[in-house]
């Protein structure tokens, strides 16, 4: 991959980045030679087989660990230690079990030093956004799986990091709620100009949300293709199904992702 | 309610068995009858001795406990978060911990005298280690993932400690505190046995010196009662500090 | 009697409530310290080393303890002095179980030689190695011609005499060596036999041994010469009272009321009568007595005390002043 | 390696400071010089005293520790699983725990004599409570969800205990064991102080009775060394019992 | 709901079953008046909004808690305590973190008392089935999200309970793997005649796998409709997309589930 000239727009750059975990049973190669450039304000979806290294890629951007080979640059500099510019909604919800929903959403606000009043208002707003208003006083163990995810999403949205890393955020939501959340997310991201990396296994979602979609090979994964999604930035997700470009793009992605199935179907 | 009843039944049964065993199975010289112990307690209560001595011991135990627990929690948090430092200091801490405090009595007296300070310091030392070791283990077993999540939100060490480490380790801290409570009393009493002219330990040793077995047992009963009181205080503190725990036990769970 | 303008507080530390401190108990319960304007606060520590530490730390002013301790301390750089005598008798005596006594064919009244000879192989509890009880026992055993390390089993059991009784009861030991009244209590409570009553001077060689003295830091003595003198004076008043046949019973009653009211009164009376002779008659602490102490100590210790220490470790300033005071 | 070096440097610094402080800042009568302590230790090593006495104390401490820990773990598991029973017994257990063992010396001797048994029982009693309380807390904090999952697989109580409860609570158990190790030594030594003519406690009290401070410190050094040894044994056991923990610390984590 | 005559075929019966959780903040109504009869050998999928009580329903069959109103019968008897006839793959994977993948899969085999050799063989077989052969010695914390789910699935399949309760088992899998797992599951279930209750948010999946699909209302949920899926028991999942009945059924389900979206789309 060639270096792009304007370093300001290249917010995240992977240069032959690899990650091999060292374990007592020997090395586990999670990612191999990742090359990817994400521009500021882009919405990238990541799709690929289970275990191909999608979460690993997000981890490297967040600075959970450095790449074992190659480089991961954020805003021109190698990521070293926890990357304070990103917000990360991990695959596991990682809620604080000893805090209620409201208190969980408030964590980043407390860290940011907001006053009690400001926190309360913001928490109420966010709880409403994710449909948890009635459950603000519940503990995570009293929530359903999808509700926990929504709580984690609200917590992420509570502060305003430059970049959002979302690891299968909507997998546990029903179709309707998922659509609503997708619309909310796109509108927030769009209005605030955030950069997003979004992992999903739902190929329709991967197309519907993305500016570009990175497709991983089977693990130890590398990025096989980056599919451009030439849909408008302002798109009506609800009507997308009827857009022929969308239908074609999902078909393409499907073929890319599941050649065996596609083959069978072609018979 | 039913629980208290069952406990009462057991207590009464134990006391009755003891009443009959004493004198019959074992000389009263060694284990005195509960009725006589009650007599002594009654006398000490009516002449104010009990309250006077118990107040002193309670004061020593409580202050020593607070001091030891506070330092134990602080050092446990510090070393739990500073792994390298903990590794360097580990053998020294364990060495100090292994010293039989009884054997150091002359030194304790030399440095801290024979007054309240000495007993408070002795109690604090004992409690410190118990609270420290549990707190440390608790802090070490806080989920690294959770800490990472918080750091990504821009949390400073202070936030990490107050928002993740303490809440995660608090069960450990309270386990350490509960383990320490009886030792706080034991520490104060042993301190009083070392040197004193007041406190339950003094009552105990004077009774022992006079071969007044009923007195010895009365002092022991008072010590146990104090420990129960202090223990209750810790339970209340635990319930306040861990609101989610209280509901966890009662909470219906789903999987 | 002379009185002081205001009461001077003196904190007094000692190990246990034993007859080894009889003179002091008498002075205290007879109110002689009060009479001399001294307010005594008493601290009991369970062992001599802790009582000594309390005095050295400054929390206690005066330590009542074995005279050998003073030499030992000074030798290791702790500046304390003996300034008054408390008890002149090695009060630690040996009590054994009746079964053991019968098995070995001895009674309280057997000749000393027989009693000594019977001790071979006995298991005797002492408070701690190096304690007065230990040394007394070793001395007795050596007198009998045995090796204290081999021929007799000396078991250290701390200062809780109830423990000795338990062990006797459980058949774990044959007897123990300690000061009155514990030997007498054992006689009564667990059917013990007082085999060798040193407190009553049964062992002629140790009769009159200067066992327990009053000690203080050099600094304290320099700052409080008058208090020291009054302390010594009160002791002298007690000595006089104890040895006055008219007042002996009165003193006994006072000591009983003040210290031993939990004890059987008759038993106390027996002990009292047995023991009053351990109370010195004078405040004298001559060099020869001190040399005896050192010799006795050196006989059973790895470390040896030098006799040259006597002059710096013993002061007669307080006793001299006390004598003047009382006149 | 570097770790050991840093520790050595600290150790040497402490010993040097101590060497100079003793005599200068504080009378040797109370804190003896390390060089003199070393002399005494050297003497005890060459005449075999050290090995003889240390072996006895080690034996008592080790057996007492094993016994107390085994019973503590067993009772902790039992009561941790039987909540009702635990609630009923709780005040009685805490009452016994609060008794100063020192004050019970006459009873210990009456029942267990003055030989090894008494010291082993005393040590076991002390260790029991520390191990029990931690094990119990650990068992109580095992995830109910996990137990439900296992029960659904048809697990009997035995399976639940071996497959979920013990592995979940084992960090707690080992924390209890580590807390007990020094107390095992302390218990044996205190037992020897109560009654004995052998063991490090006896060496200690002989030296103390002799006002032989160097001897006291030499005995303390030997006690600490034994504790370190026993502690090491527990660490090794922990590493074997918790293979996943060993790798957890070293394992790279991802979120 | 009327009682069915043949009690043998009615394996699971909900009769006006409700569940209200008692919490310190007051009661939380999770399910209301659930009526459902599941015949032996049926494959039922459950769909519905997040938080509507799907997991709660499975919990009641498993006997995690009894209904607070109404009845839940299993094989004619009220469920009391843990129901030993069911295997439950919960929404959270609940793997034993201190056991490797192989040891996790082996848990039910150990409980069943299989010999070491038998266990080893069966574990190897199952690890292969879920594609974790290379990871049998990894601990759960070393797996990707999808791998953990697969491990839980393998553990469930390790023993052979009469009824399988599956709570979003394939949500974390990529399309290809998901299809493979769906096929495996249907073939196992079919050949062994198992009864299955399967929660999913993927409406295509809900139709593709089911004999009947129960649709929940928004929480406190009850079952609004049970949709019959008149497809063959032996169906070729790979070619289902081309089956017009399937296409129609998914459309029906979509309309049922997300009326708002359907409306919008109809514009
Ligand atoms: N902490 C770790 N230690 C060892 N190996 C790890 C660790 N974390 C992840 N791996 C391995 O790295 C590989 C990639 O994992 P990753 O979580 O990135 O996959 P993924 O693409 O997110 O998969 P999924 O879609 O299932 O979540 C896997 O083989 C996994 O076993
Ligand atoms: N242990 C509990 N205590 C209190 N309330 C609970 C508990 N478990 C679940 N609930 C509540 O019950 C309701 C239904 O939860 P359930 O988990 O059954 O939903 P679900 O349909 O599985 O949702 P999802 O699709 O998000 O997993 C929710 O409102 C939830 O908050
Ligand atoms: O330290 C104890 O006395 O138990
Ligand atoms: Mg992942
Ligand atoms: Mg659910």
UniProtKB/TrEMBL annotation, chains A, E:
Keywords linked to the UniProt accession: ATP-binding, Nucleotide-binding, Plasmid, Transport
Entry annotated with the keyword Nucleotide-binding: yes
UniProt family annotation: Belongs to the ABC transporter superfamily.
Protein name as it appears in the record: ABC transporter
Protein's UniProt keywords contain Transport: yes
GO molecular function: ATP binding; ATP hydrolysis activity
Superkingdom field: Bacteria
Lineage: Bacteria, Pseudomonadati, Pseudomonadota, Alphaproteobacteria, Rhodobacterales
Entries under Pfam families matching the protein: ABC_tran
Organism: Celeribacter indicus
Residues annotated as domain ABC transporter: 12-243
TrEMBL record, chains B, D:
One Pfam family matching this protein: BPD_transp_1
Subcellular localization(s) per the UniProt record: Cell membrane
Record carries keyword RNA-binding: no
GO CC field: plasma membrane
A biological process from GO: transmembrane transport
KW GTP-binding (keyword) present: no
SUPFAM superfamilies xrefs: MetI-like (SSF161098)
Residue intervals of the ABC transmembrane type-1 domain: 54-238
Membrane-spanning segments: 50-80, 92-114, 120-139, 160-191, 211-232
Family annotation (InterPro entries): MetI-like, MetI-like_sf
Primary location class: membrane
Topology of this chain in the membrane: Multi-pass membrane protein
Keyword list, A-Z: Cell membrane, Membrane, Plasmid, Transmembrane, Transmembrane helix, Transport
Domain of life assignment: Bacteria
Gene3D superfamilies linked to this entry: MetI-like
Family indicated by similarity: Belongs to the binding-protein-dependent transport system permease family.
Protein name in the entry: Binding-protein-dependent transport system inner membrane protein
Species of origin: Celeribacter indicus
């Amino acid at each position: 991959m060639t270096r792009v000239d304007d370093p300001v727009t290249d917010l995240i750059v992977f240069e032959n980045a690899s990650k091999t975990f060292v374990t007592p049973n020997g090395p586990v190669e999670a990612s191999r030679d990742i090359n990817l450039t994400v521009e500021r304000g882009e919405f990238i979806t990541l799709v690929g087989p289970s275990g191909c290294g999608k979460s690993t890629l997000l981890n490297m951007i967040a600075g959970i660990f450095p790449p074992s080979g190659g480089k991961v640059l954020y805003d021109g500099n190698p990521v070293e230690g926890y990357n304070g510019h990103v917000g990360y909604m991990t695959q596991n919800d990682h809620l604080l079990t000893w805090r209620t929903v409201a208190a969980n959403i408030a964590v980043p606000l407390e860290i940011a030093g907001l006053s009690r009043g400001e926190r309360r208002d913001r928490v109420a707003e966010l709880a409403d956004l994710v449909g948890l208003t009635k459950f603000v006083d519940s503990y995570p163990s009293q929530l359903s799986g999808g509700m926990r995810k929504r709580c984690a999403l609200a917590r992420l949205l509570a502060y305003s990091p430059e970049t959002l890393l979302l690891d299968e955020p909507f997998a546990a939501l029903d179709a309707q709620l998922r659509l609503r959340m997708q619309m909310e997310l796109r509108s927030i991201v769009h209005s605030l100009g955030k950069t997003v990396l979004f992992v999903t296994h739902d190929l329709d979602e991967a197309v519907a949300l993305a500016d570009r979609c990175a497709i991983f090979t089977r693990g130890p994964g590398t990025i096989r293709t980056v599919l451009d999604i030439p849909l408008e930035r302002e798109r009506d997700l609800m009507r997308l199904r009827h857009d022929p470009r969308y239908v074609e793009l999902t078909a393409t992605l499907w073929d890319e992702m599941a050649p065996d199935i596609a083959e069978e179907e072609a018979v | 309610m039913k629980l208290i009843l069952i406990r009462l039944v057991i207590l009464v049964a134990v006391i009755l068995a003891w009443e009959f065993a004493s004198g019959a199975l074992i000389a009263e010289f060694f284990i005195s009858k509960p009725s006589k112990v009650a007599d002594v307690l009654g006398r000490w209560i009516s002449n104010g001795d009990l309250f006077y001595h118990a107040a002193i011991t309670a004061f020593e135990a409580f202050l020593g406990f607070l001091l030891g627990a506070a330092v134990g929690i602080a050092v446990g948090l510090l070393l739990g978060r500073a792994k390298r430092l903990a590794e360097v200091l580990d053998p020294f801490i364990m060495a100090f911990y292994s010293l039989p405090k009884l054997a150091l009595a002359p030194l304790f007296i030399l440095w801290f005298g024979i007054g309240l300070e000495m007993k408070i310091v002795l109690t604090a030392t004992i409690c410190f280690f118990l609270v420290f070791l549990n707190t440390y283990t608790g802090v070490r077993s806080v989920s690294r993932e959770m800490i990472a999540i918080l750091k990504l939100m821009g949390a400073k060490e202070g936030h990490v400690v107050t928002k993740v480490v303490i809440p995660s380790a608090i069960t450990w801290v309270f386990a350490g505190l509960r383990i320490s409570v009886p030792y706080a009393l034991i520490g104060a009493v042993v301190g009083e046995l070392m040197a004193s002219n007041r406190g339950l330990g003094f009552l105990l040793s004077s009774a022992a010196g006079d071969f007044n077995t009923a007195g010895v047992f009365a002092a022991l009963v008072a010590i146990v009662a104090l420990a129960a009181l202090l223990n209750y205080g810790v339970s209340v503190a635990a319930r306040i500090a861990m609101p989610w725990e209280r509901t966890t036990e009662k909470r219906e769970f789903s999987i | 009697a002379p009185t002081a303008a205001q009461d001077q507080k003196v904190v007094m530390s000692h190990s246990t409530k034993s007859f080894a401190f009889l003179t002091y108990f008498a002075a205290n319960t007879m109110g002689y310290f009060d009479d001399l304007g001294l307010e005594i606060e008493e601290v009991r520590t369970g062992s001599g080393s802790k009582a000594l530490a309390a005095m050295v730390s400054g929390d206690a002013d005066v330590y009542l303890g074995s005279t050998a301790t003073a030499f030992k301390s000074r030798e290791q750089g702790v500046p304390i002095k003996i300034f008054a005598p408390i008890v002149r008798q090695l009060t630690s005596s040996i009590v054994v179980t009746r079964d053991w006594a019968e098995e070995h064919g001895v009674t309280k009244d057997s000749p000393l030689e027989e009693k000594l000879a019977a001790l071979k192989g006995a298991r005797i509890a002492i408070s701690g190695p190096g304690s007065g009880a230990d040394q007394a026992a070793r001395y007795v055993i050596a007198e009998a011609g045995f090796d204290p390390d081999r021929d007799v089993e000396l078991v250290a059991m701390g200062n809780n005499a109830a423990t000795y009784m338990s062990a006797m009861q459980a058949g774990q030991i044959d007897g123990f060596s300690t000061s009155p009244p514990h030997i007498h209590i054992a006689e009564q409570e667990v059917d013990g036999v007082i085999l060798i009553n040193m407190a009553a001077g049964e062992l002629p060689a140790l009769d009159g041994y200067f066992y327990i003295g009053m000690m203080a830091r050099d600094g304290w003595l320099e700052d409080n010469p008058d208090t020291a003198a009054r302390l010594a004076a009160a002791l002298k008043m007690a000595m006089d009272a104890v040895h006055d046949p008219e007042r002996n019973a009165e003193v006994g009653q006072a000591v009983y009321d003040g210290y031993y009211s939990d004890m059987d009164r008759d038993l106390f009376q027996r002990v009292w009568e047995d023991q009053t002779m351990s109370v010195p008659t004078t405040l004298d602490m001559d060099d020869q007595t001190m040399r005896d102490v050192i010799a006795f100590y050196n006989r059973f210790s790895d470390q040896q005390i030098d006799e040259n220490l006597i002059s710096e470790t013993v002061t007669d300033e307080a006793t001299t002043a006390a004598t003047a005071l009382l006149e």
